[in-house]
Amino acid sequence: MKLYTVITAEFALKDLKLAQNFYDNQAAQLGDYFFDALLTDIESLHLYAGIHIKEFGYYKMLSKRFPYSIYYEIYDHVVRVIAVLDQRQDPISNYTQLNKRD
Predict the structure, then answer these.
(1) Domain that holds residue 80
(2) What is the CATH number of the domain that holds 24?
(3) Using CA atoms, how far apart are residues 59 and 44, in angstroms rounded to an integer?
(4) What is the pLDDT, as a whole number, of residue 40?
(5) Segments of 43-93 assigned E as strands
(6) What pLDDT digit, counting tens, does each position of 43-74 carry?
(7) Are 58 and 50 in contact (CB under 8 A)?
(8) In a 10 Å sphere around its CB, with 0-12 CB exposed, 13-18 middle and 19+ buried, how is residue 67 labelled?
């Protein structure tokens, strides 16, 4: 079994913070729950990186609890999380976001 090192890019951290703020405005503590849930999903990439579908040239993992996708790439034994994007957005918008991060 391969174990991967997971690195989260600065853009992806900003994505998480923006979404956390959105959910904080919806209900008390919901933003913290969102953040913890997405971090758990990201941490699972230590074991499960590479099993997900590819979209727009990146692997795409769907979050278990929120309508977000985690886009990542793999080099050797390192997983680099590129983006955490809302799947309720237009796919063209997500594609544009990903292209800005190359």
Answers:
(1) 5-99
(2) 3.30.2310.20
(3) 14
(4) 97
(5) 53-55, 58-62, 68-75, 78-86
(6) 999 999 999 999 999 999 999 999 999 999 99
(7) no
(8) exposed
**What global pTM score does this model have?**
0.94
The letter for the amino acid at 53 is I
Q: Tokens 């913070």 — which residue? A: 17
- What's the pLDDT tens digit per position in 15-49? 999 999 999 999 999 999 999 999 999 999 999 99
Count of positions (residues) in the chain = 102
As for how many domains the chain has, the answer is: 1
Q: Which two tokens stand for residue 40?
A: 């758990």
How high is the pLDDT of residue 102?
A: 67
DSSP run (H or E) holding 21: helix 10-26
